Structures are given as structure tokens and as C-alpha cells.
Amino acid sequence: MSWTKTTKTAVFATAAAVATAAAMFATASPAAVHATRANVCPNGQVRFGLEPYDAGPKLATAYKGLISLLQKKLNCPVKLFIATNYTAEVEAMRAKKLDVGEFGPLGYIFAHQLAKALPVAVFGTKDKKPVTYTAALWVPNGSPIQTVADLKGTRWLSPIPARRRGTCSRATR
């Protein structure tokens, strides 16, 4: 099987976040562990949502180990839901069909606004530093638009709607 660098990085980072959460769980007091376990599997399973940043079968295979680890550490079945796009994942969370979601930058903004999603873990490097994301708007050389304030009254649109990073289109006024 051939995994893309993005898939490998995301699976590693997610596994690291799960391992961190499991370590925190393991070092909690017995009373806290009991209270936490009582809430881990409220509907008989944990429903884990994922944006499709790679082909579905590759993602399912890549996340098989993570799902197995989560099931073991949580002592609860974990069902992986690979959404068709970030919008579907946000809507599933808003409809209470997901318990946990892994979102990209724009997906998280909408999940937070529409489904009240809160971050509990972030991607990180091997030395436990958070991975950050920087977005940019580009204009042609010589454009009168030189600052974000210059966008007022203009319209802009991403030309690649299928990408996670660039699907937000809006008119600014």
C-alpha cells in the first residue's frame, strides 16, 4: 500500500494526540477515571468523523490502527465516519451524529460556529510542538489590493472548490 505524506503525517499526529489523551487518562485519580469512563461511551459507541483528505479506502486503512487503539484505551466501540467533505462532517456533528471530529482549519471554524465544537487535541510534531497552518490571499503584481482592508467592496473566490484549504468564498462589504 502507498500512503501519501499527508496521510502518514495526519495518522501519526492523531495517534500522538490519542496517546497523550490515553496517558492523561492513565495518570488520573481512580475517582476521575471512574467518572471519565462513565461518560466515554454514552450512546454505546464513539462516533469519530474525518474529512476526506485522501481516497476513502486509504483513509480507512490508515485509521484502522488508530480506531483499534481508541477502542482499547476507551473500552468502547469506535465507529469511523469518513465524510464526503468538511461540510458533511460539520452537519453530522451539528445533528449529534458524531462525538468527535477531525477538522482542517476551515472545517474547524464552521464546526465551532455551527456545532459548538471545541478543540481537545491538535496535530503535533515528534517533539510535541503543535503544527500550525498559515493561509494567504494572493493578488497579481501591481494590484490596487495591498491589504485586507483593500478587499472591502470586492468579491473573491477560490478557484479550487474541492480543496479543504480554499473553499471559503465570500463577498466582503
**Strand order of the biggest β-sheet:** 2-1-3
Rg for CA atoms = 19 Å
Largest sheet report: 3 strands, parallel
Low-confidence stretches: 1-37, 161-173
Count of runs of 4 or more consecutive helical residues:
5
CATH architecture label of the largest domain:
3-Layer(aba) Sandwich
Q: Which descriptors apply to this entry?
A:
mainly alpha; 10% strand; 3-stranded parallel β-sheet; D-Maltodextrin-Binding Protein, domain 2; disordered C terminus; 2 domains; 42% helix; disordered N terminus; 173 residues; two-stranded antiparallel ribbon; elongated
Topology:
Layout: H1 5-26, H2 30-40, E1 46-50, H3 56-74, E2 78-82, H4 86-94, E3 100-102, H5 105-115, E4 155-156, E5 170-171
Parallel strand pairs: 1-2, 1-3
Antiparallel strand pairs: 4-5
Helix pairs in contact: 1-3, 4-5
